[in-house]
Amino acid sequence: MGVTRREAVLLATALAVTPRVAWAEAPPPPVFAEFGQTSPDRAAYDQAIDRGADFIVTPLVAAKDGALVVAPDLELSTLTDVGRRPEFADRRRDATIDGAPASGWFCVDFTLAELKTLVTGPPPKSGGRAAPPSTLLSLQEAIDIARAGSVRQARVIGVSPRLVHPAYFAAQELNLEPRLADAIRLAGYDSRAAAMIVQSREPASLKALAGLSNVRRIQVIDAAGGPADPAALRYAAMIESDGLKTVAGWANGIAPTESLLIQPGPKGAVLATGLAAAAHTAGLTIYARAAPPAPHESGLRGRLVALFLSGADGVMCADPGQAARARGEAADRLHPAD
After folding, report:
1. Which of 210, 289, 291, 209 is nearest to 254 (CA)?
2. What is the extent of the structural domain holding 224?
């Protein structure tokens, strides 16, 4: 399917304000499969890989016994069936997470074996043939999925752990960083050339990991606010020229949200902000976090192409198939056939 007229405007405008990226001399920018606030299971990761993902994002929390588990939140009731499990009813409690009150069932109160009994996703429908239940994955299982996908697709599939509320786990004496560093070494990823990139919103977490591992590290940057640590540099300051140089002291790259890289322009066009060029000047790679598609949105592909054309070194997206196709379209515009 060709691009619509509106998408063509988006592409042309983005191209007009973007430097020519030398993709011909380097591997194409990777696509990261990003699952937002859902807990991906084996089938979801396999599908993302088969649709073109080069990295799978694995948000990490810690279980009571220190095991690293793939989950976007440490409160389990929105991710699993724990609220419908009478044997765990007495574990519901209140907690304070990074200064904010929370109530529910928390991963730090469950061992890995107990977490593996919880079912993720919607309740099974009555009648018909039931599919095997999905459960939370361990980090090692996610690594195994990426490696199996590498064999199946005959290309390297990487893993991108994202540390979830690391300061909270440190306060519980369940520090994520040394556990992840141990897993990285055991899995053979302890190198900047390895197919692993660790993400965090917390500079302190990335600094701690830097002292434990040679793995690549990227600072996640949102459109507003800042890390949970009130003493840390705010996100708005991180994307200033001096802030980018400061971030380069603890990270190899940044992962800004889409709106920090491209913004709406006149007559439905989209404009690059120049953040990618500024990040490159500071010695940082830049991985764009695409906004989730709106219901019935027709402009997702145009936005994704614009992100690649803005100078992003990779794009994180809930639809890796669309992102992979957008990467191809961006490459065609940067290097048109003679």
Report:
1. 289
2. 5-74+137-334
Residues 305-332 pLDDT 10s: 999 999 999 999 999 999 999 999 999 8
Q: What is the CATH number of the domain that holds 269?
A: 3.20.20.190
pTM: 0.90
Residue 122 resides in a domain: no
Check if the beta carbon of residue 138 is closer than 8 Å to that of residue 111: no
For residues 273 and 27, which has the higher predicted lDDT (pLDDT)?
Answer: 273
**56 CB contacts (<8 Å, ≥6 apart)?**
32, 33, 40, 45, 48, 49, 142, 145, 146, 157, 158, 159, 160
For residue 70, the tally of other CB atoms under 10 A from its CB is: 25
Q: Is residue 128 part of a domain?
A: no
Rounded to the nearest 5°, which phi and psi values hold at 274? 95, 0
Helices assigned H by DSSP within 109-220: 112-115, 139-153, 166-171, 176-187, 203-210
The 10s digit of each residue's pLDDT in 153-177 is: 999 999 999 999 999 999 999 999 9
Residue that has been written with the tokens 């907690």 in this structure: 95
Q: How many CA atoms lie within 13 A of 114 on its CB side?
A: 18
Q: How many domains does the chain have?
A: 1
286: left (phi over 0), alpha (psi -120 to 50) or beta: beta
Nearest to 327 by CA among 285, 313, 131: 313
Does some domain include residue 120? no
Q: Count of CB atoms within 10 A of residue 33's CB?
A: 27
CA atoms within 13 A on the CB side of 233: 20
Sequential DSSP letters for 281-338: HTT-EEEEEPPPPPTT-S-HHHHHHHHHHTT-SEEEES-HHHHHHHHHHHHHHHS---
Residue-wise pLDDT tens digits, 84-117: 999 999 999 999 999 999 999 999 999 999 999 9
Residue 257: strand, helix, or coil: strand
Output the CA torsion 184→118→88→37 (10° steps).
70
For β-strands 158-163 and 93-97, DSSP reports them as: unpaired
Q: Is residue 111 part of a domain?
A: no
